[in-house]
Write a structure and sequence with these properties.
180 residues; mainly alpha; Ferritin; globular
Amino acid sequence: MILEQWAPFVVSEPSEGAETAKSALPPRSIDTLEGVGDRMRAAAFAEFQAIVAFGWAADRFTDAPIELRDAWRALCADEERHYTSIMNRMKELGIDPAGRAVSDRLWQSLKVCTTGRQFAHFIANAEERGRRAGLRFHQELKERDPETAAVFLQIVEEEVSHVALAQRFYPSETLAPNAR
């Protein structure tokens, strides 16, 4: 089943005439709780999309090796843990997941993948971008909000193996330059 209902998140509506979702508003200043919330909301939603995407891909891409498809299914548990950690911290901080619209561009982009190889590399690039963003977020927050920073450091460390998965199964390809 493809999940297109993203509760508790509110997804940005596509622009008139557009077929895919538009980008969410840019995050507010990280020096404010609202700005921290924007980043946490986007990260939690990315993890939610990853849960759905890995399960979907494991069933959809029968061209991918069964070991990779099994690994994708296993990654759902990691992504669920990341999602839950962020959502729990948001609750502790009083940040509403539906407080500002997020973009489902990641999911929309993943749905157009036509092969397991394409999905593996696309999701690896997305995971690497998320890992780098999480590392920046951790650095920004480690002095003033060590609890939130610790949540993101744990996620960043676990994402390394997620990124490496595509390379393990499709070693002739490398991550896109913007994902390095």
